[in-house]
Amino acid sequence: MLASLISGLASGETVAAMRRARTAAIVYGLALSAALCGLGFLVGAAYIWSAMRYGSLAAALGFGVGFLVLAGLILLIYQISAGSRARRRAQRRNADMKAIGITAALAVLPTLLKGKGGLGVILGPAVALAAYAIYRENVKPGADDGDESGRN
């Protein structure tokens, strides 16, 4: 991998890729600004049409309320979806931590098997981990530690 990176730098491939990326960014920026201008003119045309039909004050009030409602909807949708984004990040983080743990365990495994304790060094924590996993699976989350009568 390092050799391909060095050869890419030496051949000028990286410079060409940067040039292509810069050109694409400029083109997309120009297209975005043209699209925003077009959207602005469409909003202006809709305002002129509604001002001619309903009067300028009613059109201004309608557009103002409409854009405020649109802003509120955007914020509401963002807040609602924030919970699912946080859950996805937590799941991804847990999966990454499990992968790191498994990788570390596999890296240390040959060394542990060669040592004096051998298999016993590995089986002890593995049994403890399995017992803890079984315990976690069987305990209901939010279970009350008090007795059934409701008294503590």
From TrEMBL:
The keyword Transmembrane applies. It comes from the Bacteria. Keywords: Membrane, Transmembrane, Transmembrane helix. The chain crosses the membrane at residues 25-49, 55-77, 97-113. This is Phage holin family protein.
